[in-house]
Amino acid sequence: MAFSVPSSLIHAQSAFNLRNSGHATPPPSPPFPPFDRPSNGISPNFCSISGLSTSWKNTNFRLQAMSTTQGNVATLNGISKTKHGPDHLLVLVHGIMASPSDWTYVETELKRRLGSNFLIYASSSNTYTKTFTGIDGAGKRLADEVLQVVQKTESLKRISFLAHSLGGLFARYAIGVLYSSNPLSSSQSGDLSSHKTNAENSVSSSKLGSIAGLEPINFITLATPHLGVRGRKQLPLLLGVPILEKLVPPIAPFFIGRTGRQLFLTDGKPSKPPLLLRMASDCEDGNFVSALATFKCRILYANVSYDHMVGWRTSSIRRERELSKPPRRSLDGYKHVVDVEYCPPVSSEGPQFPPEAAKAKEAAQSSPSTENTAEYHDIIEEEMIRGLQRLGWRKVDVSFHSAFWPFFAHNNIHVKSEWLHNAGAGVIAHVADSLKHQESTSPFIAASL
Predict the structure, then answer these.
(1) CA distances from 178 to 175, 291, 294, 327, 389 (A)
(2) Is the dihedral of CA 368, 371, 376, 382 positive or negative?
(3) 20 to 30 A Cα–Cα from 266, which one of 128, 196, 244, 431?
(4) What superkingdom does the record give (predicted)?
(5) Within a 10 A sphere around the Cβ of 112, how many other Cβ atoms?
(6) For helices 242-263 and 370-388, what crossing angle results, to 10°?
(7) Beta-strand (E) ranges in 295-414?
(8) Burial code of 161-179, b = ≥16 C-beta within 10 A, e = fewer?
(9) Alpha-carbon gap, residue 211 to 286, rounded angstroms
(10) What is the DSSP letter of 19?
């Protein structure tokens, strides 16, 4: 079974650290955020991306009120219908068994650094045990919530997402729901630049679509299990012990519901691809890759170690052989951020679900063993990577090896608690500067569709 996948931002700083041999001449640009290291020694491509249609269906979804915050850090009940105000919506999406309060430090810091042009909104539609109801269910609730915010704030023109852990998968599903392929009118798209690129490898973003009727700018995830948590230390808590990695998937649904099945890739009938594989494509559930392709900038922040919940490979969308020993020295001004790499899009036919995958899935569901579960996971992981690598990504590696509490890496990366997880302050500063950089420039991360 084949999935259709339609056809990315990097200003490079003057210093380049190339993983492979090759020469690249960086274009002139502001000195921050820190330089990107092209994964193959080439400079990234650029293409124009804008948003599209402003029409959508009204929803009657009722949402819980969030605790009030100051300035442009918004709550759903606290948003008044206005045509004058911030024009850039930044949606914060928390992870499993969490709440908007996880973003308290981030909200304050981003508001201070980004100013009044941003409406910073911490999602509240999937708090605590609601995160157990499935990635698809949570994604739909998030999409409804975002629509309500957009409908109440007529000044909005652009949209970005910043998500932590499982919230990154919720956000990926939500943008598939919110995606529209209808191009914006010239008056809606404003003075967007129209950089020309190779027509075979990339497409003008003004033709790619919009999210909730707004121009998509940034899609950023922090320690998100994009490839699920099954196999070879994808869930580091299991320590890579084969017997534990065999026993946990069947019992995960008893603790975290449908979400558990989806994260371990055992959801659905054997003949149907698991949700995370479908989300690496455009399919009947949603145009997930088309939606991602509309964003000017896609950034993955990944803990290289000490994260007990999400492994390095799954959070950075890499194969085992693509991992290399990370630098131990932090980038100047961004403590614990150790490397930034630009990965250009890779052209392919997109992910598939071959008969052997269905057979392996059936075996993994009915009579799991170390052998058949490994075979199934290897097939699905490779297909997911092939689907997602059709988009260009900036990958930011984070290492808390020198932090006082390195084993809190999963919560450090988004400073869940300022007094306990403040080692991640440098990461949030990097995120803020990346967002600010997008406001002052118009580069685009390419997509090979």
Answers:
(1) 5, 8, 12, 38, 22
(2) positive
(3) 128
(4) Eukaryota
(5) 10
(6) 50
(7) 297-303, 337-343, 393-398
(8) bbbbbbbbbbbbbbbbbbb
(9) 13
(10) S
The length of the chain, given as a count of residues: 449
Q: DSSP for 89-156?
A: EEEEE--TT--GGGGHHHHHHHHHHH-TTEEEEE--TT-GGGGGS-HHHHHHHHHHHHHHHHHHBTT-
Answer whether 353's CB lies under 8 Å from 1's CB: yes
- Give the Cβ contact number of residue 386 at 10 Å: 18
- How far apart, in whole angstroms, are the C-alpha atoms of residue 242 and residue 229? 14
How far is the C-alpha of 362 from the C-alpha of 378, rounded, in Å?
15
Q: What is the mean pLDDT of each run of 10 residues along the chain (449 residues)?
A: 41 33 36 52 34 33 34 60 82 97 97 95 97 97 98 95 98 97 56 33 57 97 94 57 64 86 92 96 95 97 94 95 93 97 92 89 79 83 96 98 94 95 97 90 63
Instruction: Report how far residue 294's alpha carbon sits from residue 208's, in angstroms, rounded to the nearest whole number.
Output: 6
Tell me how far apart the alpha carbons of residues 49 and 293 are, in angstroms, rounded to a whole number.
8
Contact 396, 340 (CB under 8 A): yes
Omega cis (within 30) before 33: yes
CA 254/CA 311 separation, integer angstroms: 22
CA-CA-CA-CA torsion sign (32, 35, 36, 41): positive
Joined together, the tokens standing for residue 237 give 């808590």
Q: What residues contact residue 350 under an 8 Å CB cut-off, 6+ apart?
A: 2, 3, 4, 5, 280, 281, 289, 386, 387, 390
Q: What is the pTM of this model?
A: 0.80
The answer to whether 449 and 314 have CB atoms below 8 angstroms apart is no
Question: What is the pairing mode between strands 393-398 and 337-343?
Answer: antiparallel
